[in-house]
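Hello forum,

I keep getting stuck at the same step: I have a sequence, I want structure tokens, and every attempt I make locally crashes halfway through. Rather than fight my setup again tonight, could one of you with a working pipeline run this one for me? It's a single chain of 480 residues.
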Amino acid sequence: MNACLDRINELIATSTADLVSKEDLATLQKLQEEFAAELATIRGRVDALETRTATLEKQQFSTTTKLNGEAIFSLSTATGGEPGSQDANLAFNNRVRLNLTSSFNGSDLFIVGLQAYNFRSTGSFYERGNIQGQLLPNSSFLGAGSTKLSFEPQFPGFNPQTLQPDGGANSVSLYKLAYVLPLSQKFIVFGGTNAEITDVFPAITPYASDSQGAISRFAGYNAAVRITGGTSGTGLLAGAGFLWNPSKQVGLGVIYGSGSASIPEDNGLLNTPLGGGFFNGTEAIAAQLTLKPISTLDIGINYAHSYHTINILGTGLGSADIASIRFTPNAAQLARVGGDATLATLDEPINVNSVGATVTWRFAPKTSISLSGALLFANLLNVDASTTFSSWSAGLHFRDIFHEGNTAALIFGQPLYRQSVAGIASRPEDATPYHLETFYNYRVNDNISITPGVYLIFSPEGFSANDTAIVGALRTSFTF
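Reply #2:
Ran it on my machine without issues. Output:
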């Protein structure tokens, strides 16, 4: 209408022809009067929007950075475990993460992640003040264990690179630092100083999320992608990699990372257990081929080669991680660590080749089945000892249960277990451990969810003498 008025005024001013009749002007005047209120409202809205825009530009946090966060709170308790161990009292834990995501050209990402948690550490090198340390104190060295919650750090309160205390409860630390740069629509490169393999590869199971998915550490990811030991805590890897997606059906991700890049000198087992240097300490190279042959089928095939300066797998899924290849140390090995047999077993470098596959099939509109399996082939470098570890799981996942957005799952599987040994390696476990879990994720709204769940571990840590461990948790997650 305004454009029409301008055109008419222009024609009248030129007076080149009798182009406007009195009837036209009368119609236009009538329209002006009819829409006067609407025009005034629109003018007021525009003025208000201009004022608000000016205020936002003046007060905005950053023109290039966005802030998002996640806060997880849980109540948990547990029973069972080693004979004579005490049941875990009701515990209240939390983990808070703030993520600053910046973009400098509109397509790249610079990610800074801050984290605080209150999973308690006793401060002892051997004993941990958590459910794992309560139920299975003899298998809790360095915090590895099958009873851990999904969002629980693998090494609460400790820096595994230096074995030094890593701040107190709810102290803020940097858990993620990475830069992501798309070179094309199909090829992305990235690098960072605090990363995990699970950051890079697409999750295949629908319950992999720490805050919305499974409540146990075991259930979310294939054991073959947990080989770095940093999952659910501070990323241990400094490195780089790429993501290549030649089509919607095929994707390939590769990452190389070092767990000791910031340490210039290897000062031995009791000072720098992960070694020192970007290429001379603990390191891993991992790849995942992601396939989507049809819209209802996702497949992930994983391979990882890792070198650890100590005899540890670093998956955090069971006692098989720590002093992973068991053997009887000789006199020279004992003398090197002051006669401590556990330290003598740890004080050996190890190579691990890991292969795994995960498949999720959405066979019904709101129901899917996920199958996962992994084999880890571990060899000590200075000792004739090797062990093959296995792990697998199967799960059913349901969406929109009782209400849109709610999910539930039933998961059964086997945590890491010594499938076979060779050389002087021994297999102290006498039973295969099994894991059974169920949870229900209730979405209060888009930002809040409540997840009650329970999981049982039969023959925990692979020992038949251990009672079935039962862990119950009520998790509440806030995202913003």
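The mean pLDDT is 87. If your local run keeps crashing, start a new thread with the error log.
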